Amino acid sequence: QLATSLAAQLAGKLGAGARAQKDPIPLPLAREAARDGAALVHLAVEIGAGRLRVTADVYPVPRTVWARLRDPEPGPIAHAYAEAPLDAEIRSFLAPVPLVAARVDRAKNFEGDVVALACGDLDADGSLEILSVSRRRVTTLRLRGGRVVPLSSRSWPDVVAVHPSPLREPLAFATLVERERDGELLPPFADVGLTDRARSVRFDGKLQAVAELPGLAIPDAGGSACTTTWGPLLTGPLGPCAPADPPPATSALSGRYDALASARLLSARGEPFTVWATREGGAVELRDSAGRRKAVGSAGAQLAIGDLDQDGEPELLAALDVLDPLEDAVVVWSWRRREGAPDRAALQEILRLPAPAGVRALAVCPPDGPGRAPFTVATADEIWVVR
């Protein structure tokens, strides 16, 4: 169905006289089917490494018997290629991804004070990296053979000054940001905010600090926004973190939060929407850009949002609100926003992973294959990647 839909869309773009085959057929049969046409456009559709790749080749159609005898299978006269990350719209053409089972890859970490995670292709090399933020350093890493392998690392004292009055229990956020200009993707960057430090920092793909940011950089609709006040709770107006940044999707934080997560997702129709999760007084609330709200109830201060099964509906990941780390776990809820009235949208627990060392940080990764989007967990002594 996906290949057929792409062919139909391309035929519509080409205009009158262009028609798409109802079913995918190999090139030799496509040549035969196009004998009466002016040209043949053959699409090759592939899904790999979390991306949809489409190659288009234009073949001339021999007009006479003699032309067919001289060259029955002429080569392409034009070629085009495009790719896009898997999203809910593309995923709607594929088999549903179950979320009830998980494979967990664990690796011993070299530090135990991780306070924030992010996940994505920060260095634009085609592979995902984990961005780990601790109270001592910022590190990009991967898991290999049961080990945490650092790729780049920056010590905080070498990057930005310490805050004059750091919190005993820090607030920390890491956000990987991708933006476009004139339809072209710009190099990704990471905004990291940590209350131990006097300012937040923007890092490039090589983990070089490119800017110090005012306030605390927090995730906001696929990008970052910066608080204008500094304290033990997140509250008050938000502003752009840098002069060239777009205005925040949220102009102000109306509550007094000790944890926050946000993500910009796509519905199954390809429509963008944003989801926020905020924690106030130990209780978590979800809301989206359409005005829907859902109370989750008690949850820990480690939060993340993503669309794990790429069905166009968000999942909330959270730790438990427990004092004993032995009782901790990662819990995944699916928010079925389309089911019922906006104030009654279903929230269903779909996965629970015990984490007896205690959950320190969570992050959702972009899809890197046809299965569910992975997510990463930092415990007191390990880094996990869950698929």
Detailed description of the structure:
By secondary structure, the chain is mainly beta. Helix content is 8%, strand content 47%. It is built from four helices and 29 strands. It has helices at 2-14, 27-33, 65-70, 88-91, and strands at 39-48, 51-60, 78-85, 104-108, 114-120, 129-134, 137-144, 147-155, 172-177, 180-181, 184-185, 189-194, 200-203, 209-213, 217-220, 223-227, 234-239, 252-257, 259-266, 272-280, 283-288, 293-298, 303-306, 315-319, 329-336, 346-354, 359-364, 375-379, 382-386. The strands form eight sheets. It has a four-stranded antiparallel β-sheet, with no helix packed on it. Strand 5 and strand 6 (129-134) form a beta hairpin. The model has no long low-confidence stretch (mean pLDDT 90).
Keywords for this structure?
29 strands; mainly beta; Methylamine Dehydrogenase, Chain H; 387 residues; elongated
- In helices, the fraction of residues equals under 10%
The major sheet is characterized as: 4 strands, antiparallel
Q: Any idea what the shape is?
A: elongated
Tally of distinct domains: 2
InterPro entries: Integrin_alpha_N (IPR028994)
Protein name: VCBS repeat-containing protein
Organism: Sorangium cellulosum
Secondary-structure blueprint:
Layout: H1 2-14, H2 27-33, E1 39-48, E2 51-60, H3 65-70, E3 78-85, H4 88-91, E4 104-108, E5 114-120, E6 129-134, E7 137-144, E8 147-155, E9 172-177, E10 180-181, E11 184-185, E12 189-194, E13 200-203, E14 209-213, E15 217-220, E16 223-227, E17 234-239, E18 252-257, E19 259-266, E20 272-280, E21 283-288, E22 293-298, E23 303-306, E24 315-319, E25 329-336, E26 346-354, E27 359-364, E28 375-379, E29 382-386
Antiparallel strand pairs: 1-2, 2-3, 4-29, 5-6, 6-7, 7-8, 9-12, 10-11, 12-13, 13-14, 15-16, 16-17, 17-18, 19-20, 20-21, 21-22, 23-24, 24-25, 25-26, 27-28, 28-29
